[in-house]
Amino acid sequence: MARKLCRAGIVLALLACVYAAPAAAATTYGHDNARTGWYPDQDTLTPQLVTGGTFGKLFDTAIDGQVYAQPLVSNDTLFVATESNNVYGMNPRTGAVRWSRHVGGTPWNAADLSCADLTPSIGVTGTPVIDPSGTGTAYFFAKSYVSGGSGAARWDAHAVDLSTGDERPGFPVQISGTADNNPLTSFNAAHEMQRPGLLLMDGVVYAAFGGHCDRAPFQGWVVGVSTAGQVKAKWVALGGQNGAGAGIWQSGGGIVSDGPGRLFVATGNGGSPPVGTPGTSPPSNLGQSDIRLAVQPDGTLAAADFFAPYDAAKLDGWDADLASGGPIALPAQFGSQAHPKLLLQYGKQGYMYLVDRDDMGGIGMGPNGADKVVARLGNYGGIWSTPAIWPGDGGYMYVPTTSGATETEVFGGSFRTFKFGTTPGGQPTLSPAAESTDTFGFGSGTPVVTSSGTTSGSALVWIVWTGAGNGVGAQLRAYAPVPQNGRPVLLWSAPVGTSSKFAAPGVAGGRIYVGTRDGHVLAFGSPVTPPLTAPSAAFPTTTTGSSSQRTVHLTAAHAVTVTGVSTTPSQFSVQQLAAPVTLAAGQSLDVPVTFTPAAATTYGGTLKVTTASDGDVTVGLSGTGAAAAAQLSVDRQAISFEGTRVGGQVNDAFTISNVGGQSLTINSMTEPQAPFSTPASLDGDSLGPGESVTVEVDYEPKSAGSFAQDITIDTTAGDELVGLSGTAADGPHLDITPLEIDYGDALPGSVVTRSFTLRNSGGTTATIMKSKPPVGGVFVATSQLDETTKLGPGAERTLTVEFRPAAAGAASDAWDITADDDSGPQQVSFRGRGVAPPADSPSQTQAPAQTRVSPPPVAPVLLPAIARDPLAVTLTRLRLDARHRRVSFRLSRAAHVVLRIERLVRCRSAIGRCFDYARAGRAVKVRGRAGSNAVRLPRRRLRAGRYRLSAAPAGARPRAVAFRVRR
User: Fold this and answer.
1) How many angstroms separate the CA atoms of 194 and 142, rounded?
2) Beta bridge partners of 949
3) Residues 27-80: pLDDT tens digits?
4) Is 23 helix (H, G, I), strand (E, B) or coil?
5) Is the pLDDT of residue 338 over 70?
6) Confidence class of residue 425 from pLDDT cuts 50, 70 and 90?
7) In whole angstroms, what is the distance from residue 294 CA to residue 172 CA?
8) What is the pTM of this model?
9) How far apart are alpha carbons 648 and 613 in whole angstroms?
10) What is the CA radius of gyration of the chain?
11) Which residues of 797-831 are buried (b: 16+ CB within 10 A; e: fewer)?
12) 3-state helix, strand, coil in the chain (%, to 5)
């Protein structure tokens, strides 16, 4: 019998209250169609249980084929699908195989397209979906050959009985033919890859497709097959004839739905929309986009809305897929009154986007040609994963980031935690809360969260960690949901063998399930009685050719005899025991393990402890190798400056690191041309092992348009490239006419009406940030101007205010208005006089009847633009001469400026982002004039090193420039 999730104490108002299968069921990717990765029904899976010594590996069952699909549980059956086109029904408690079945023909050989993303064969990759209504039917898509073991390929939709594995009537269904929305394009089974998790909605199973290693021609497809076995929809993300691009892969993340008839998918590079296209007018080409698809009355699909980053075309060139991360429909708890339905999208470039699901924003429709989204956050490093959400403890989000890599090489990624919150203006946002110190290699999995509702202290964050893309030595890890001191708290871990890339662990009934690349299904739960317990061992970053050592501390749970120890792979070694060691309950054995990396990558390994009669115990090992030679790493692939007003200025930065064992020299770094600039040249600079330097990039557009450049960094350890992009437009300008209104004389009790007009004479939309009309006095606003009101270019609003004198005498009031334009705060002032009637007026004996006086026509008055703040000061063009004594800068007006030279001290980190900090120097206060200034600093000897000159005008944003002193 289904039970309702809307139980007391669980804040499920943040998701629609729906009926779901019993607690032991997990029927779709990420637990729900929103793809939050949150399993709120795991009451028994507590942190206390996991750390209490009785939680561990329940079973390890060998099966035929690699497991990339998330394991699912329903009808007391653990359902697993593999790349060899085998599906299994297993006992979810013991791992015993109740039935297995080979579906379709021979799995397709990835060598046919020379693609090594997933080898050697491809069968079932996308996570299946199980009917949650209790029919006991599992749906999935499998790739095979039309006949035999070679030749033409085919994709088939399957439906099997969970109790027997038998195919349901009407299945399998082969996918073929032309797209409903583009009859010029046909489904090419050989070039299509079904990676995202399936969606079952309103009796139709939806599957999304992308490409194999971008081998053309491929397109992003969404196909719908009814539960009765009829093809209902075939939609493609590209127009034209058999084009290539816009694949939907999402690192395995599921198709999102937030209600009947609504689907959301994310596409990769190729065929991006033209800039300036509104979201509600989707073009035929929808690469690099989040897309809302609507089910039509005939069952076909149509794009109803979309969002694409303003620089989507540039992202194509950088291979910075928006779709490397799976989208999430965030619970309403994380939205706002204005934007209650948010879509979270995080991709390769490293930016997070909060998109309104009902008004996605199109491309380049925001201020100054920027993104029209609720928020763009980052850059925090790219992802190949779907983030996981924890609504408790105020709300958190978890995701592993990585720089991208080959199967054996990685420059470093980390496990990141973000805290939900709001900006001072009430907009939803995410703030960095924690970052792991150890490296998460390319291919680390998608996290999930388990809890008992939103009860604080009940949650755990689970993720499969791997050192590199080959998945060797992977670990299942459990973290506390709330970080401490900026770091995630690791509570438990265990080796799992060779992991599949980006895979999410399955969750059901208080157990965690992991499918592996080497053909195993593992389950972790309680109770288990391991004879020995030990935490995993993490080694420090170690230069290739050298070694480091850690001691694994084994504790006996009961009397046990240890007969041997061994390690895998060969980069880890352990000295064999001279003789068996017998331990009483509670006694410990220390086992020294040595790490000797052979290459500059991150390794996962296993220490196996053999006992006389209690079986083997395994302990996870991890360590990162650093190159003996210099090795270059740059933390940003691309920097996007979004939209900026002409004449505005924004900045960002990237970090160049030497993660090798020898010094490197920066031979040259491209000096970007206007509107981009960098404050100082790094040509000839050296970086020692573990050293980093942060490069500031300024963006100061002087004209409207779109701009893109590349910075090439040429070093003795190789080259790297950082892409730059930005847009600019003439900003909004709010004219208010008139700014002063005189109502003249009016009898007490009469009403006089006057009006004024707001007009946006700028080039982009103006948003009203502050509107404080007169209320409760003799002046009363009868028109409404809400804060957040938007005025497009050329748009006008006429507002009226009535003067209602109650007695004789002068009166005044004002309406304060501020927009996000260059006018700054403005004020419309009102004045009028109440005058007594003549002595012989009947009003001396009775109050006059109210009369409404029509105002004389007011001719519009054009006033010059008012500066945002007449007293504000800006400082530009800060420069320092070679002898570090003569400083030049420009001021918008005369002001005092504080100059300070600070010594920059580098932090040392072989992996990951590294930040400088400054040792404060002596300040010099000077009086600057409007325009150009040149100041000679007091003579001071600076020792060799890196420094920063900062200039801080009173009441304005400081500027800084970095320089180096050599002796």
Assistant:
1) 8
2) 901, 961
3) 999 999 999 999 999 999 999 999 999 999 999 999 999 999 999 999 999 999
4) coil
5) yes
6) confident
7) 26
8) 0.76
9) 73
10) 33
11) bebebbbbbeeeeebebbbebbbbbbbeebebebb
12) 5, 45, 50
